[in-house]
């Protein structure tokens, strides 16, 4: 059965993009928590998806090599990302110390401006996002030509949209579990662990 090279390129881009973002990370943990609280879910998922789309477009457009060559820029972003993740990990740890049920957590709603600022920080202060989207996806896209290259990038973008909206809106299926304070304690401890691990990893990378 003949499969169009264009379709193959799109599928390859989609599965590559999915493999890069479907992992326990700072951005995903944040979207999961906001999804559980049903706070600004659409806006935050859209921001994450559009941010990935812009970075992937830059990589496919040929900026991957420029980012990879700027060691100073990558090091600065790495240190900033490590500091931000460590701070957010400490906040999550403090929440775990005095957990609240879902209703209580929803009573203290986060403002849209604060949620957007946090989301953008998780997105653009993480050097891995540049390495994954701009450098890696951009570099692999160089193996395609013309329309196939554009479709490859579109496939990777589609994976981001599918994942973030599925995560944000699918989180509500877990709400009965998170009616118990103990579940929030486990989640926040897990988030704190992820943040500290990522911060340590970034700091080690920056020093080396």
Q: Which stretches of 5+ consecutive residues score pLDDT under 50?
A: 101-105
Q: How many structural domains?
A: 1
Based on CA atoms alone, the radius of gyration comes out at 18 Å
**End-to-end Cα distance:** 50 Å
Helix content: over 70%
Run of helices and strands: HHHHHHHHH
User: Structural class from helices and strands?
Assistant: mainly alpha
Q: How is the biggest beta sheet arranged?
A: none
Beta-strand content: under 5%
The strand count comes to: 0
- What is the average of the pLDDT values? 79
Task: Please work out how many helical segments DSSP would assign.
Answer: 9
Report on the structure:
The chain is mostly helical. The protein has one domain. It is built from 9 helices and no strands. The chain is globular. About 2% of the residues have low confidence.
Short description:
By secondary structure, the protein is mainly alpha-helical. It has helices at 5-21, 26-37, 41-69, 71-97, 102-107, 112-124, 127-141, 147-170, 181-207.
Q: Topology, pairings included?
A:
Elements (H helix, E strand, L loop, with lengths): L4 H17 L4 H12 L3 H29 L1 H27 L4 H6 L4 H13 L2 H15 L5 H24 L10 H27 L1
Key features of this structure:
82% helix; single chain; globular; mainly alpha; 208 residues
């Amino acid at each position: 059965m003949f499969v169009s090279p264009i379709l193959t390129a799109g599928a390859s881009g989609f599965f590559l993009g999915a493999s890069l973002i479907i992992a326990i990370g700072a951005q995903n943990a944040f979207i999961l928590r906001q999804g559980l609280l049903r706070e600004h879910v659409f806006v935050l998922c859209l921001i994450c998806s559009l941010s990935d789309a812009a970075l992937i477009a830059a990589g496919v457009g040929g900026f991957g090599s420029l980012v990879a060559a700027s060691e100073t820029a990558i090091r600065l972003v790495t240190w900033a990302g490590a500091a931000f993740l460590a701070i957010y990990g400490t906040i999550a740890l403090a929440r775990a110390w005095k957990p609240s049920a879902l209703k209580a957590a929803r009573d203290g709603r986060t403002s849209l401006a604060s949620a957007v600022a946090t989301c953008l920080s998780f997105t653009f202060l993480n050097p891995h996002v540049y390495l994954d989207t701009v450098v890696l996806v951009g570099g692999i896209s160089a193996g395609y030509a013309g329309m196939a290259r554009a479709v490859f990038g579109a496939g990777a973008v589609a994976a981001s949209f599918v994942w973030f909206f599925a995560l944000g809106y699918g989180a509500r299926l877990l709400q009965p579990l998170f009616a118990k304070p103990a579940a929030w304690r486990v989640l926040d401890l897990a988030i704190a662990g992820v943040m500290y691990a990522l911060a340590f990893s970034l700091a080690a990378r920056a020093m080396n």
